Each structure stands twice: as C-alpha cells, then as structure tokens.
Amino acid sequence: MITTTEQSTVKLEAAGLDEKIKNMLQQLKVVTVIGSGTMGNGICHVFAQSGFNVHMMDINQVALDKAIATIGKNMDRQVAKNTLTEETKAQALGRITTYTDLAEAVKDADIVIEAATENIDLKIKIFQDLDKMCPERTILATNTSSISITRIGSHTKRPGKVIGMHFMNPVPVMKLVEIINGYATEKDVTNVVYHLSEYLGKVPCIVNDYPGFISNRILMPLINEAILALQEGVAGVTEIDTIMKLGMAHPMGPLQLADFIGLDTCYSIMHVLHMGFGAQKYAPATLLANMVQAGFYGAKSGEGFYKYTPGSKELVVSERFQNKSWKI
User: Does the annotation mark 166 as catalytic?
Assistant: First the structure.
C-alpha cells in the first residue's frame, strides 16, 4: 500500500481500524486515475508519493506526457522546500504508468478515481465502461464537484461501490477531501475511502448526495453573487475582491477564485444547482454565461475577470472591467 509492507502495516495498526476495513485498505495497491488535467495529475501525484502504483489514463498521450512533466515540476518544488528528497521523487514518478487504453488501465485496479470534465453525460459513459471493465472488487470513485453520485451509480451494476472523492485544487497542497455518499453507497466503501484519504495525509469530511454537496453549495452562490454585483455595477473587480479579502479574511477574492477554478466549471456547477433545486437564486449570472460562451474561462484561457500573462504573477484586471464609473 505504501513503500513497504512493513511501513504500511505499522501505519494501519497505529490507526486502530476495524479488522475488515484494515484488510480492505491493505488490498488497495493499484489506483487508476481517469483524466490527466489539473485535478487528475494532482491526484496521481499524492497517490504515487504515498506509495501506490498509479495508472494515469487519458485518451491523449501528449496530455499524459504534459501531466508527468507537471508532476515532476511540482515535486521539484517539494525538493526545494526539503519536504521531499530526490530519491523519493524518483521512486514516486517510477510508480506512475500512463495509458491511453481504458481497459488496460483498469483491469487490475483496486480503486478508480474519475477526474474527467464536469459533464454528466461523459461521466455516465465512463462509469458504464468502468463497470464492465473493472474487477468486481473495484471501488469506483468520482472527483465530481457537483454531479449526483446516486445518478452516476444508478448507471452501473455496483451502485454500492460508487462514491464521491472530491479533492481540492491544488491537490498536493489542499488538505480537504469531501467524501460524498450516494444513496446506495455501502458503509464499508465509505469507511475505506475515509481512511484512505487520511492515509494520504488529507482531512476527509463525509457529506450526503445533494446538489453541490457542501463545498460548492456554499461557495458557488457566493461567487455567482459577486459576479452579479459586478454585472449590476455595484462595484468593480478590484473593489469586490479587496472587500472580501480584507473584510472577510478570504485569502483570495471571489472573482479571482472563479478565474482560478475556471469560469466554465463555475457555470456548470451553478447550472447543476439551478436544475437540482429549481430555485431562481441558483441561476447563473448572465455575465458568467456570456463570458463562458465567448471562451473567457479565467486563468486557463488567459483572461477572465483578470488578464493572465505567462511567467507573471501580477494581478491585472481585464480591460473589459476597468470602467471607473462606480468610483467617486
């Protein structure tokens, strides 16, 4: 489960776990991660560093190569901070194998974590395929930030083994893992994923399956309200973010955070909330919808509420929002 069986056994014994859960954890040796983007490569990073054999799967080999390079660079930062040695970095990278064929990537998997695009139809198709290709023992987890676990699980023949494992970005840094129980998720599966998260050095929190869960049910309406305030001319980008940072002790303003998350992702989650609850208060702001339709996704596209220049950390408001009409 980690670098050596002895280390693994000592760590599990110290946790004082139920014998059944401990045995299930000890059987988790191969982790398959579907998707090699920001979340996917971050999840691969933490599992490989914790001693697991990781199968990273993507349909694009170029994307996989880029992900391996990203993981290497992120580990280099850890080496520079003396939180990782060159030897352990090399060992961790050596545990990651890339695949473009899904069946090959999951045939020996003990747990699969799907980290593909936040699209319900795509996720359902992936889980239907996983259900057919994975061994019966395999736990099927999704890193979705808002889509119903119950709905995803209902498209498989193993809904009891389907669970949400929502990591936060950047995965190697952020401690939280939001664990989401579907209506049919088995208690033992929840316990295994909970203690697995602790094993990775994370802090797991278990929630039930309602739109947006807890993290995005609270965060996304806040971001959407900040966008509505900007849309209505109540204040500018800098003012909105400064008020929330200095007045509410937020490390990052809501508009900058939206850019960091991705405006397309924010829109998708607000749409899930709106459809799930049927309440107007969850309707995505028109400005958000327009920006997404125009291809302005935030940091990943180079422009959102702020303008992003490669190699620069300077926070520059997009020219589109530099109107000073609300200032005295």
Answer: yes
Q: What's the domain count of the chain?
A: 2
Tell me if residue 154 is catalytic. no
User: Do residues 267 and 288 touch, judged by C-beta distance below 8 A?
Assistant: yes
Q: Are residues 202 and 285 in the same domain?
A: no
What is the predicted pLDDT for the residue at 295?
98
Amino acid code (one letter) for 316: V
Listed residues 154, 185, 208: the one ending a domain: 208
One of 143, 145, 146, 148 is an active-site residue; which one? 145
Comparison of pLDDT for 106 and 26, the residue scoring more: 106
Asked whether the beta carbons of 306 and 254 are under 8 A apart, the reply is no
* Collapsed DSSP state (helix, strand, coil) of residue 22: helix
19-43 residue pLDDT tens = 877 787 888 999 999 999 999 999 9
From 166, 181, 197, 224, the catalytic residue: 166
**Do residues 183 and 265 share a domain?**
no
145 carries an active-site annotation? yes
Which of 143, 178, 224, 303 is labelled catalytic?
Answer: 178
Is the separation of the CB atoms in 279 and 233 below 8 Å?
A: no
The answer to whether residue 126 scores a pLDDT higher than 50 is yes
Compare 27 and 58 and report the one with higher pLDDT. 58
Q: Active-site residue 178, yes or no?
A: yes
CATH number, domain at 120? Answer: 3.40.50.720
pTM of the model as a whole: 0.89
